[in-house]
Amino acid sequence: MSDDRHDDGSITTLLRAVKAGAKDAYGLLWAKIYDAARRIAHNRFRREPQGQVLQPTALVHEVYLELLGNEHLPTDNRTELWKLLTRVMSNYLCDEARRRLAVKHGGNLTRVELPDNVEAPGADLELVIAAHEVLERLESDHPRAASAYRLSELAGFKDVEVGHMLGVSERTVRNDLAFARALIGVARGGSNGREGTTR
User: Fold this and answer.
1) How far is CA 94 from CA 22, 79, 100, 146, in A?
2) Confidence of residue 197 (pLDDT cuts 50, 70, 90)
3) Burial of 63 (0-12, 13-18, 19+ CB in 10 A)
4) 1 pLDDT exceeds 90?
5) What does the pLDDT look like over 150-163, one tens digit per residue?
6) I need a labelling partner for 140 at 20 to 30 A (CA). Which of 64, 115, 166, 181 fits?
7) Could you give the count of Cα atoms lying within 13 Å of 110 in the half-sphere of its Cβ?
8) How many CB atoms are closer than 10 A to CB 106?
């Protein structure tokens, strides 16, 4: 990714300004990270099975709305910011997959109008949900491995960058990633995209 992901100083300053309630701070922060958020969203869609419920641009818009006024927005840690972005995206995609499956199976839910290029629900949506649930369990039981996975596979950072952000060696990052990829790969029914590679 470009330098918008790595500019710690200005992003951290804007995060603090948002928390302090500074006028227009959130808009400035979002303008700073928008391109990175779009790349993360595109990265997510390359890794997910077919049958997804949104397109990357729409997903980024949903993330914007979710983070607006979010009390969990980190105050001075851009690592947590990127992890939060991937978490919000994962939660939203999983919720949409569950909603579509419920409608397919006759659930008494209000039908939501989605873009014309949205595909019909099916077994692939169940894989989205399964992978999400595995990552949530991983985050609870092995938080460092989950963080490595979010930063590497979902946010697109290189292994050496992830190691620096988490304060561990590159070898530890690779071991954590291998562990996380194996678990999530099983949930998806096999490897996907760049998973299993070293960067």
Assistant:
1) 33, 23, 10, 17
2) low
3) buried
4) no
5) 999 988 899 999 99
6) 64
7) 2
8) 7
Tokens 């399964």 identify what position?
130
- Beta carbons of 65 and 89 less than 8 angstroms apart: no
Decide which of 47 and 10 is more confident: 10
**pTM for this prediction:** 0.75
Long-range CB pairs of 146-152 (<8 Å, 24+ gap) are 146/180, 147/79, 147/83, 148/173, 148/176, 148/177, 148/180, 149/176, 149/177, 149/180, 149/181, 149/184, 150/82, 150/83, 150/86, 150/87, 151/79, 151/82, 151/83, 151/86, 152/177, 152/199
